[in-house]
């Protein structure tokens, strides 16, 4: 096989791979992230990030209030980008639970001390048990839980004002 034919074959294979990757990225990105929609949030018992001797369970969800569960990690660059918006939501009175995922406990605690915490409580999911039962595939991920403990929405990726207004606000306002 000539050098030109080998090079052409390489480009064809590489082009096919890129095309498959592109199609995979564009096809229904939220479809894989619909686990537990309209189902009860799984039961759990996890330690608090800052106080590992204190364990919290699903009773942390407040009755008659929407709850935002934010899956994050100190090593997650995108989590850092959305952190300021989460602090704005906290200042607006939203009840936010942080679920620290696949992280070093000291790094996570330092991250919150340095950047401030938008969370009412921060759960430390050391073994990723809750994250696995939730179907978490990466960080950040935001899960909206209704007043009855039922998962109503999920978003994988940065939570921005635009995403908040289009995916979360309509559910909370009954639209």
Would you mind describing this structure in some detail?
By secondary structure, the chain is α/β, with parallel strands linked by helices. The chain has a single domain (about 35-170), classed as 3-Layer(aba) Sandwich (Glutaredoxin), CATH 3.40.30. It has helices spanning about 5-25, 75-90, 105-115, 130-135, 160-170; strands at about 45, 55, 65-70, 95-100, 120-125, 140-145, 150-155. The strands form two sheets. A five-stranded mixed sheet has the order 5-4-3-6-7. The termini are far apart.
Oligomer: single chain
CATH superfamily: Glutaredoxin
Q: What count of helical segments does DSSP give?
A: 5
Biggest beta sheet attributes: 5 strands, mixed
Order of helices and strands: HEEEHEHEHEEH
The fold-level CATH name is Glutaredoxin
The name of the CATH architecture is 3-Layer(aba) Sandwich
**Measured distance between first and last alpha carbons:** 63 Å
User: Which spans have pLDDT < 50 for at least 5 consecutive residues?
Assistant: 19-30
User: What is the top-level CATH class?
Assistant: Alpha Beta
Compile the SSE list and pairings.
Blueprint: H1 3-26, E1 45-47, E2 55-57, E3 67-72, H2 77-91, E4 95-101, H3 105-115, E5 121-125, H4 129-134, E6 141-145, E7 151-156, H5 161-172
Parallel strand pairs: 3-4, 4-5
Antiparallel strand pairs: 1-2, 3-6, 6-7
Subcellular location: Cell inner membrane
GO molecular function: disulfide oxidoreductase activity; isomerase activity
Pfam families: Redoxin (PF08534)
């Amino acid at each position: 096989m000539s050098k030109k034919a080998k090079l052409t074959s390489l480009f064809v294979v590489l082009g096919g791979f890129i095309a498959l990757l592109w199609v995979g990225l564009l096809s229904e990105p939220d479809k894989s992230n619909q686990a537990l929609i309209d189902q009860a949030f799984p039961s759990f018992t996890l330690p608090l990030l800052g106080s590992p001797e204190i364990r919290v369970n699903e009773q942390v969800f407040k009755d008659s209030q929407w709850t935002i569960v934010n899956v994050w990690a100190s090593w997650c660059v995108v989590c850092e980008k959305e952190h300021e918006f989460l602090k704005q939501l906290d200042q607006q009175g939203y009840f936010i639970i942080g679920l620290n995922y696949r992280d070093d406990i000291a790094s996570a605690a330092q991250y919150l001390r340095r950047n401030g915490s938008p969370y009412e409580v921060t759960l430390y999911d050391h073994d990723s048990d809750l994250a696995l039962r939730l179907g978490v595939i990466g960080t950040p991920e935001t899960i909206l839980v209704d007043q009855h403990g039922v998962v109503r929405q999920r978003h994988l990726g940065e939570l921005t004002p635009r995403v908040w207004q289009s995916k979360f606000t309509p559910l909370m306002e009954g639209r």
